[in-house]
Every structure is written in C-alpha cells, then in structure tokens.
Amino acid sequence: MSESVPGPAPEVFAPHKAPVSPPQASEEVEFVQLLTPEGERVEHPDFTFDLDDEAVKGFYRDMVLVRRIDSEATALQRQGELGLWASLLGQEAAQIGSGRALNKRDMVFPTYREHGVAWCQGVNPLNLLGLFRGVDQGAWDPKDNNFHLYTIVIGAQTLHATGYAMGQQRDHAIGDADNGEATIAYFGDGASSQGDVNEAFIWASVFNAPVVFFCQNNQWAISEPIDRQTRIPLYQRAAGFGFPGVRVDGNDVLATYAVTQQALRRAREGSGPTLIEAYTYRMGAHTTSDDPTKYRLSEDLEHWKLKDPIARVHAYLTRHAGLDHDYFDEVDAEADKVAAELRAGCLALPEPELTDFFQHVYVEETPQLAEQREQFAVYAASFSADSEGEG
Amino acid sequence: MTKITLGKAINAGLRVAMEKDPKVVVMGEDIGKLGGVFRVTEGLQKDFGEDRVIDTPLAESGIIGTAVGLALRGYRPVCEIQFDGFVFPAYDQIINQVAKMHYRSMGKIRMPVVIRIPYGGGIGAVEHHSESPETLFAHVPGLKVISCGDPVDAYWMIQQAIESDDPIVFFEPKRRYHEKAELDESVPPSLPLHQAKVLREGTDATLLCYGPMVKTCLQAAEAAVEDGRNLEVIDLRTIAPFDLATIFASVRKTRRAVVVHEAPYSFGPGSEIAARVTEECFYHLEAPVLRVTGYDTPYPPSRMEDDYLPDLDRVLDGVDRVMGY
Ligand SMILES: Cc1ncc(C[n+]2csc(CCOP(=O)(O)OP(=O)(O)O)c2C)c(N)n1
C-alpha cells in the first residue's frame, strides 16, 4: 500500500448522498404522546400517566419557573454577567417530565443544559451560574441532590452513569421497582455519535446495569442537523445493543414522565437499561455565542412553536382542570420572584480569591505546587505594595 | 495589499490549498454552513461543496480515524477539532495511528494529515475551551507540532502544513484570530515551515515564544525599552521539531533566555528548551534559562484566567529575574 494509490475523483466521494432520509417533520414521527399540542389527553397502549391534575399543575409550575430561570440567565449573559449560557428553551417538558419521575435515591448524570432536571433535584439554580459566570466549575456537591456536575465534554458522562449504575447493582441497591435505585444519563442527539456513548450502551447492556439513557433529540448539534448524526431514529439503536428503546414526544410532559417512570422502574427492579429518545426542539441558539440564522430556517422554529411544551399544559389545565387566571398569575408572580432572586444572587456571587486557582488540584498538595502558589502570592502582592508606595 | 485577520488568513490559506490540490479535503464539526465556531472555514463549503468541506458527525475519534483512511486512499485531510479540550477522544487515533503509520510501514505509508486545533485561553470561555496541550503532542515521535503567531505566518504555514507529507498538529492561537496584519499573497513565505523567526533583534536577553504569546512578548520587549533593556524576541513557530539552531545562535549572543508559554510549567515545552539550551550553550549563559508559563493547575475558571496566563508584567518580571543573575 502506498500514498500514490489514486483515489476516485472528488465528486464521486459522496456517500451521504444516498437516497435514504431519516424522518424530518414530526408529523412523520411515531412517538409516545399523552397530551396533544392542543392540550387534549390521548391514550397509548403501553404507557399511561397515572397522576392527578394536582401533579399536572406542579409540572406546569416547574416548567414556567425553569423557563423563567433560563430567560433570566440569558439576559444576564447579554448584560455581561455570564460569559456564556446554554438555554433549555423548548426542552422544558423533556427535563421536567423525566426529572419528576426520579426517586430520591436515583442518580443523575447531566450534560450542560439540564437546568430543568437540576431544578427537579433541588439544586439551587444560582449554583448553575457559577460555571457560566466563570467563578467556578460547579459549586454544588453531587451527593447533596444526587445530581452530578455538568459535563461539557460531549458524551463522557454516559460512561460515568453506567459505572455508577454498576455500583448500585453491586451494592444490591436494585431489585425493587419502587424502592431500588437507578441512574439516568442525559445527553444530546449529537452526543449519540461519540464513541463514549456507544461504549456506554455496550457496558450497560452486557452488565445489565440499572441505567436509563435519556437522549434529548433537539434536532441540532450546534449547526449540524440530526441527519448528520444518524440515518435511523435514534431510539432504534438500542435494539442493536440489546435493550429497549422508546421515542417519546419530548414536548409532552405527561408522556416524558410516564415513559421515564417506566424505564426507571425497569432499571430499579433489575431489568437493565433503556434508551429514551425525547423528540424535541432547541428553540433558542445552541448557546449565547451561537447564531442559528446561519444554518436553520425560521419556518422550522415557527412550526415548533406550535408544539410548545408549556402552552399545551396551559390549555389542558384551563379546559379540563377548570383553572382560571389566578393560578397562572400566581405562577408567573412566583417566576418573577425566582428570577429576581437569581439575578441578585448572580451579582452577589463572590469573586474568587487571588490564589483560589491553586486549590483542589490534589488532595495532598505537592511541594511543587505549594511553591508555585507561594511565589504567585508574593508576585501578586508586589503590585499592591508598589501602588501603596506610589500612592 | 490588504489587512487581514489571523482567522481570515487561515481561511485564505485553506482556500489556496484546496484550489491547488483536489485531494485536499477539510473536515470537522460545524465547519460547513456555520463556517466553524470561529468562522475559520467560512464560505469554503459554499465554494468547494459538501464533498470537500465535510461536516462530520460529533465524534473526534471518527474525524481523525477516517482521515487516516482517506489519507491511505490518497487524500490530504485537514481536520478541525473544535476546541483544544475536545481533541482527546481522538488522542488514540492521533498518537497511535496517525503518528506511527509511517514508521510501522517502514516508510511505505505517508500520513499527510493536518489537525487544526484552536487553542489557548484568554477568551473568557467555560472549562475545556482554553487548554494548551501542545506538549502532549510534541512528545509523540512521528508528529510535528506548529503554531502561528501572526496572520502572515498563519496564511503560509497552513499551506506548508498541508503540503507536508508528515502529519502536523497545527495549534491556532484562538485569542489572536482577530489580530490583523498586512498580507501580500504574491510574496512567497520567508521561511520554511520548521524554522523559527527572529521578530525583534536585541542584545540583553532572548524571549522565546510561539502562538498567542508572540504578541505578548513583542509588547513586553517594547515596554522593556523604557527600562533600558534591549530584548530579542523569537517566534519558535514550530514546537516539534524545535529550530534549535536559531535558538542557540540567539542565546549565544544575548546570554540569557526566557521561555514563555501558556501551557503548565512542569514538563512543558519550556522545560525541553531550557534543557537543550543548557546542554548546548552552557558556557555562554549568564543565567539559567527561565520559564514564564501557566501554572501546574488545571486551566482555571475564566474569572481567574488573567492571573493564570502569562501577561506583560509576568514576562517583564521574568526578564528582571534573568537579568538579576
Ligand atoms: C467532545 C466534544 N466535542 C465537541 C464539543 C463542542 N460542542 C459543544 S456542544 C456541541 C453540540 C452538542 O450537540 P448535542 O449532543 O446534540 O447536544 P445539545 O447541545 O444540542 O443539547 C459541540 C459540538 C464538546 N463540548 N465536546
């Protein structure tokens, strides 16, 4: 073999132009849906939503609050208070539905957009801002709320989740659908292409680990549409790895709850992993540094706005649970309050101390690092000494 | 002659390389319609088509592993890794496959692969977006590692890298993407790819730098004039292989050297340079070779990066120390 082997003419090299296309419009998409975009309940043979309207009210409140937290954080970024923000706009139902299906002892491995799941787990939203403001890289203790640190390297956490689930299995924390433990890993459609994610599927499968893989297919990985990641619906991949996969309407909070609850119960009772593909849409930019007008059509966004996850619950609660303005106003007022607290808290986040970045590199600090910290402190202090001398 | 930014210069260089050789293909995440997250590949897909400017799945090991296959088939892939911290899923492919193929095949296979990595800090990013992992590649036999410090070099070095039959990791100083300079495409490059450039002649000490630190060191040299110091500034341009001849000649003249880089202090490129200079120029040296670098910590949250990164003051402090012997 040699480098001089002639290749085909460049124009022949077009493997991705073969005439197969994955389903594009959601109309063609088969998924589990229990609440239509119009706010009507529908039946599904395999999944039922078994909570009452009080619970639906709670989901509504959750979604409104996290949307408000999200828009406040976006505003804070625009005002220069955060370096970056990854918005969850449009993905509230996927996150609240799945997040509310978790039991206290289940463990969550998020990526960097799971603000709604963090909310369900009781993580203070303010703690999420530190990473994006640049004062820390995750100020919460994952053990406090069973919510691991955000993971920015795409897909890495799916393996951590699988290993954690293997630990739960070894510790005999499974075997009971209600009281056992499970793990859930969140990731995006883009992440499904990573080796790590595929390795996680294999490990979870062969060790029958109690892990739920929750993929939010928001149709985009920055500028790349879903058909640059897969030729078949993502949930169908599970079959090839040897566990069930299910696609759910990711904008339907009742359905994401029902589907996730069933998958978690399966994991807790010891029946192994499930892949859930929550079919949804990223309504905003990928992050505040992204400009989606470069790569996607505004019609798509308009189309998806009709499927808004919050509007349909609003419609349901108005029409079928007899709620009037008062309830919605109350929730809005609460959202305003949460947002105001978030803003004030963000502005009050303490700036790191001068030598903070030397902390926690090791449990037992090395002499070399201690010396560097010392030298840095002396060097930094020399400036204030100078200015005092001059002033 | 036009003023051009470093980012646009790489874009222009890629364009020339693609026009010259139909076997050059550019591949990476978001490089097509979006033009890359830093817009370095902007417009290329529109002009060269989706077969030559390939938006890849989100899989770095896949990007480099398939580039190996394309290279085996006679193509010259130019791969973009979106950010420094995301190269590691591909690290195995790079160090075990790309770097060793020529050696393993006893010279029968060539790997003309270029791996472009926007690198370094100073842009206020979140974690994994500001790393300087050049040593991790420079230490691997079979790879060549380069970085550009200004738009003119960027324009020519990307073309020279693509023409090279050896695999090259090209570290692009992302915080300098918007720096501008005059570029005259009709003037051929003044230096071959692996030669260092004396940017400023001086007599008192030599500043050795590359990539994002080139500008910082030039500024430091200007500022040092006020202290009556005349510093020589060398842009290494190439990290593996180092251009030792240029470094030695300068240090023999100035007798003092400070190496400046963003990567952590220990086991960084500065360590290697200091060792080589000490071995070769021992009797010329008036002071040990000093290093002004990042610290031996992970890259910190962005509110602390100004303290972590070598800046003008820290470079001048290094100069003070090296002059103090
Ligand atoms: C290993 C790795 N490669 C590249 C990136 C840069 N990057 C950040 S987010 C992103 C797209 C992720 O898409 P997806 O997995 O669909 O999740 P989404 O952001 O849409 O929720 C990319 C390419 C990264 N963070 N990690």
UniProtKB/TrEMBL annotation, chain A:
Oxidoreductase keyword on record: yes
Cofactor: thiamine diphosphate
Statement: the UniProt record of this protein carries the keyword Oxidoreductase: yes
UniProt organism field: Kribbella shirazensis
Annotated segments matching region Disordered: 1-24
Residue ranges constituting the Dehydrogenase E1 component domain according to the UniProt record: 61-338
Tree of life domain: Bacteria
Keywords of this entry: Oxidoreductase, Pyruvate, Thiamine pyrophosphate
GO MF entries: magnesium ion binding; pyruvate dehydrogenase (acetyl-transferring) activity
Enzyme Commission number, as recorded: 1.2.4.1
Protein known as: Pyruvate dehydrogenase E1 component alpha subunit
InterPro entries given in the database record: Alpha-ketoacid_DH_E1_comp (IPR050771), DH_E1 (IPR001017), PdhA/BkdA (IPR017596), THDP-binding (IPR029061)
A single GO BP: branched-chain amino acid catabolic process
TrEMBL record, chain B:
Any Pfam family the entry gives: Transket_pyr
Keyword Amino-acid biosynthesis: no
Domain Transketolase-like pyrimidine-binding, chain residue ranges per copy: 4-179
Statement: the UniProt record of this protein carries the keyword Aminoacyl-tRNA synthetase: no
Classification lineage: Bacteria, Bacillati, Actinomycetota, Actinomycetes, Propionibacteriales
The name this protein goes by in its record: Pyruvate dehydrogenase E1 component beta subunit
GO MF entry, a single one: pyruvate dehydrogenase (acetyl-transferring) activity
Documented EC number(s): 1.2.4.1
Xref: SMART domains: Transket_pyr
InterPro entries with a match to the protein in the record: THDP-binding (IPR029061), Transketo_C/PFOR_II (IPR009014), Transketolase-like_Pyr-bd (IPR005475), Transketolase_C (IPR033248)
Keywords: Oxidoreductase, Pyruvate, Thiamine pyrophosphate
Gene3D superfamilies per record: 3.40.50.920, 3.40.50.970
Organism per entry: Kribbella shirazensis
Cofactor(s) named in the record: thiamine diphosphate
Enzyme class: oxidoreductase
